[in-house]
Amino acid sequence: MGLTMVNINYIQKGLLFRKPENQDFAIATFLQDLKDSLSVTLTHFHPLAARLATVKRQDPPSLILFLNPENSPGARFIHSTVDLRVSDVLEPTDVPLIVQSFFDHHKAIDHDGHELSLLSVQATELVDGIFIGASANHMVVDGTSFWHFLNSLSEVFRSKTQNGQFAPVSRPPVIERWIPPGSDPILTLPFAHEHEFIDIPNPPLLRERIFHFSADSLSKLKAKVNSEQGRIHPEPGFDSECSTTKISTLQALSAVMWRCVTRACWSPEDQETGCRLAINNRRRLSPPLPDEYLGNSVQTVRRDTTAGVLLGRSVGWAARLLHEMVANHGDKAIREFVGFWVKNPYVYKIGRMFDSNSIQMGSSLRFDMYGNEFGLGRGVAVLSGYANKFDGKVTLYPGRDGGGSIDLEKSFNHQPPIESPKLEIISHCFIKPQIISRESQEPIYISPWDLAMLNINYIQNGLLFRKPENQDFSIAAFLQDLKDSLSVTLTHFHPLAARLATVKQQDPPSLTIFLNPENSPGAGFIHSTVDLSVSDVLRPTDVPLIVQSFFDHHQDGAYDGHKMSLLSVQVSG
C-alpha cells in the first residue's frame, strides 16, 4: 500500500565499517566499484531509478501517482568526508546527531520523490572508517525490499572478477504490484490537489540511544515469559481462539519495552497506552507473496490497554497480548484492511499516528543487515538517519555479536538543560545514640579491607516517596519521629556516630586510623526543601543533576570522616 506512505520520510539505514588496514585499499577504486555495482543492481531494481509523477483527474477530483522512468537522471550517489573516527560515533552514550548527515534526503517525505531521486546511496569517509548509507522512498519499498536491495548491492560488489565483470543479482526482485482481486489496477487518491493531504512531519529534537541485549539474556527473558503462560488466567482482552501460545523473543522484548516506557512516563492508571508492531504481510497472504516482492507489503497493528492494567500485570501478560495480536493477523485481516482502503482511500499523517504514551516497534530481526560487507569485512554498527523518528519509536537490529543478540535503538524527546531550582537547607543537627554504653565509648580499629577504602567516596543511596495525601500528615512530626528512630538505631550502630582519628608513629613511620567516639557530635541530620514535584525527578531521560544535592557529603571521600560525620541522613521535601 505505497500510496498510504506519501507523507512518510524516506527509509534511511546504513552500516559503519572500519577501513581496511592493507595498503592496497584505495578509496577512489572502492567508490568506482560501488558506483558500478549500483548500476548493475539498478538493472534489476529499476523502479528505484525513476521519479514520481502525478496525473490529475477532474471528474471526480482525484490524483494518480505512478513511477515515471522518463527523463529521470537515475539514483543519486554521494561521496562525503568527515573528520571523525569510528570511536567518535560508537562511544558516546547517545547516537551523535552528525550521523543524520550520513544520509541524503534529510527530512524529505516520499511525495518529494517528484523532484528528488527515489534512491540515494552516500559513502561517507571517516578517518579510520567508511559509512555506507542508503535513503529510499518508502512509497516504493518497505523494510524487506530495502534490505533486499542492499543485500543485492553488496552481493554484486563482491562478485567483481579480476577482469572487472560483475555477476547479476541472484535473487532478482518481483516488480509486478499486488492488487486485490476485483480492484482497479490503477488506484487513485480522492483529492483535487496535493495541498489537501501533504502533512510534513516536524517532530521535536530527539535523542537516540542504542541498547544491546545479549543472546543469553534474551533466551532467559523468552523462557521466563513463556513459563508464565500457565499462570495467566483467561480474562477480558485475551483471545480464546488463538491457536498458538509460544511467545517469540521479539514479542517478549516488545512487552518489556512497552512496560518500561509506560513506567518511565509515570502515566496515570487510567491513561491509555498502546504498542504497535510492524508486520510483513508477504507470507501471511494466501497465496503468499514472494520474499523478493518489491514494494510495500507491511502493516502496523496495535494493541491498547491502560497504564494501570499494563503495569499491574506481569510481562508475560503483556507479551501474550502482543502474541495474540500477531497470531491473528492473517490473510483475512489483511484483505479486509486493503479492501477498506480501496473504498475509503487515505494517507498516513505521522504526526497524528503516535503519542508519547505508546511505543512503535519498527524494523525486523529477520533482515540480513550484517551480511552486507562490500569487501570491507563485517560492519561494526547499523545506524539510521532522521527519518520517521518520534518519542516512543523503537528500531530493532540483529545484534552485531550475532547468535540471537539484539541491538535496540530508542528515540527520546530531547530535554534541553534548564536551570535547576536551588535546594534550601532548613535545619542541620547531629543525632547521638539514645543509650551510651561502655562499648560505644571504646575506639574501634580499622581492618585492612576498611583501610583500602580511604580514597573512596561516601556511599550515597536513598528512596523517593510520594507525600501522603491525608490531612493528618505533619512534616514536623515525621521529622521528629525520624530523628528519634535514628537515635535508637545508632544505639546498635554506634560506630556510625563516631569520627575517624589518626595516630602517627615515627619508628617506623606509620599511621594508625581508628574510629574515635570521643567528642563526636554524632551522625548528621538535615532537613531541606526543593521546588520540584516527583514527576520532575522521574520523567527526564537522564537523572537530574539536582538529585546529587539530596545527599550530604557531596564529593567527600572516606578520609574526610576525620572532620565530618560518618553518617548523614537528609530528608528533602
UniProtKB/TrEMBL annotation:
The keyword Transferase applies. InterPro entries: CAT-like_dom_sf (IPR023213), Sec_Metabolite_Acyltrans (IPR051283). Keywords: Transferase. One of its GO terms (molecular function) is transferase activity. PANTHER family: FAMILY REGULATORY PROTEIN, PUTATIVE (AFU_ORTHOLOGUE AFUA_3G14730)-RELATED, HXXXD-TYPE ACYL-TRANSFERASE FAMILY PROTEIN. This is Transferase.
